[in-house]
Design brief:
The protein has about 210 residues and is α/β, with parallel strands linked by helices. It has helices spanning about 10-20, 35-40, 55-65, 110-120, 140, 155-160, 180-185, 190-195; strands at about 30, 45-50, 70-75, 95-100, 120-135, 165-175, 200-209.
């Protein structure tokens, strides 16, 4: 689906399909960090593209676990060194495309184009990993003035589906001390749910072409 053919009705229909498949936000499994999901999805020697890479901090994390990883970055910010600054210059197929806290910075129609570009550079059997602030945890989204679109978990899955992906997993990300986890996940859980405010700061998408 191209951005010129973006349909709000199709987004709504896909959102309902994601809700029916994955349930409510409280039904999503919790992972401690995005890296724990990432390392379950990959292997040493694989080719990885990070979209919206910023300072390329992911590269060091990957090399500590996968010394033979082939890492490349794409970012429109030319003040930092990246392998690519435009999608038109990407001439490699990747095993894994990572897009962490990027999609909330663009409009829905642009998100379709962005995700379609990600799908276009993935090898058959490749994996897309994407995170975005959890709108049920308002401070995470609202603290950044450059955030444009708040993506609920079901809308994140829906926009990925409209871009040609098969949604494999949707998760919540939450990292805290043992005591913090006990308080939020057990003691305060009824309060969180009653108020519609989650303790998990981000949601994470795992999808395949």
């Amino acid at each position: 689906m191209s951005d010129s053919a973006f349909s709000w009705r199709q987004l709504y229909d896909q959102r309902r399909a994601i809700q029916q498949r994955f349930g409510k936000i409280w039904d999503l499994p919790i992972a401690k960090r995005y890296s724990s999901v990432l390392f379950d999805c990959g292997r040493d020697g694989m080719q990885v593209l990070e979209v919206g890479a910023g300072t390329r901090g992911l590269e060091q994390r990957l090399r500590k676990v996968w010394p033979g990883v082939v890492y490349q970055s794409l970012d429109i910010d030319r003040s930092a060194a990246h392998d690519f600054y435009r999608w038109e210059d990407v001439d490699v197929q990747y095993d894994l495309v990572c897009m962490f806290d990027v999609i909330e910075h663009v409009r829905p129609d642009v998100a379709v184009r962005l995700l379609s570009n990600c799908r276009g550079v993935l090898k058959p059997g490749g994996v897309l990993l994407a995170t975005t602030p959890n709108i049920y945890h308002p401070p995470t989204f609202l603290r950044d003035a450059t955030h444009i679109t708040p993506w609920c978990y079901d809308e994140l899955g829906a926009i990925a589906s409209l871009s040609g992906f098969q949604v494999q997993r949707l998760l919540r990300l939450y990292s805290d001390s043992l005591l913090g986890r006990l308080i939020h996940r057990v003691v305060l859980y009824p309060v969180h749910r009653g108020l519609g405010i989650d303790f998990a700061t981000h949601v994470m998408l795992v999808a395949t072409p």
